[in-house]
Amino acid sequence: DIVMTQSPESLAMSLGERATINCTSSQTVLYSSNNKNYLAWYQQKPGQPPKLLIYWASTRESGVPDRFSGSGSETDFTLSISSLQAEDVAVYYCQQYYSSPLSFGGGTRVEIK
Amino acid sequence: EVQLVESGGGLVRPGGSLRLSCTASGFTFRSYNMNWVRQALGKGLEWVSSISSDRSYIFYADSVKGRFTISRDDTKNSVYLQMNSLRAEDTAVYYCARDKAPGNNRDAFDIWGQGTVVTVSS
Question: Of A3, B2, B22, B40, which sits 20 to 30 A from A48 (CA to CA)?
């Protein structure tokens, strides 16, 4: 089973600052036949379902602001928010969809300092 | 509008059963893999089960294997989760979610329902 580990558990940044969230998988999620990383990032605000932000590790979902970006490959991934806005306060999760059982990271809570 | 609506949650005693439903609208349901994800209060997301568009694969988390059954009825644009032998630790919000791309290949979850609450308590 692939275990997803996120860090930090929480972070507080000032408005306009860059926020970086890390996600590590216990095994590679890079599928060699298509050279795609089966890694997604979600944002969840209180009382709402998760929202897809990034898929294939670095492809931004339609409608997601370009201040959100994803990077990384194989086992190490990063979600960056280039200039933190008040509406970005949420919990962020990474997820691997490379193999069953699918798995999520534990989440990172982002707050405004 | 592309939408998923869950129903069927409620309060059930330990050992009891419940059947969750998720009804889709606004897209060609039969073409998409579907999933269930749950979230206990104040906790993170836990994948529960997936069913492919053609039912060629069905997967379960170890925590529910042998107790939960996922199924789909493409004529009703619905996916179901039959939950038996329920335990207190199954208490959670249960979300239905769609794979992003049509077809059988694995993908991220781009459409989520609002969730239905399942409480297992005596």
Answer: A3
φ, ψ at B31 (rounded to 5°): -90, -5
Look up tokens 């898929």; give the residue. Answer: A55
Exposed, middle or buried: residue B89 (CB in 10 Å: 0-12, 13-18, 19+)?
exposed
| pLDDT tens for chain A, residues 1 to 113 | 999 999 999 999 999 999 999 999 999 999 999 999 999 999 999 999 999 999 999 999 999 999 999 999 999 999 999 999 999 999 999 999 999 999 999 999 999 99
Q: For residue B34, how many other CB atoms are within 10 A of its CB? A: 24
Q: Which two tokens stand for residue B63?
A: 């925590």
- One-letter amino acid at A15 equals L
Residue of A4, A3, A1 lying closest to A92 (CA atoms):
A4
Residues of chain B in Cβ contact (below 8 Å) with chain A: 35, 37, 44-47, 50, 59-62, 95, 97, 100, 106-110, 112-115
Backbone angles phi, psi at B60, to 5 degrees: -135, 150
Handedness of CA B84, B88, B94, B100 (dihedral sign): negative
Question: CA-CA distance, B31 to B116, in Å (whole number)?
Answer: 24
| Residue whose token pair is 């806005």 | A85
Dist CA A23 CA A37 (whole Å): 13
CB contact under 8 A, A40 and B108: yes
- The residues near A102 (Cβ < 8 Å, ≥ 6 apart) are A95, A96, B35, B47, B50, B59
A55/B106 CB distance under 8 A: no
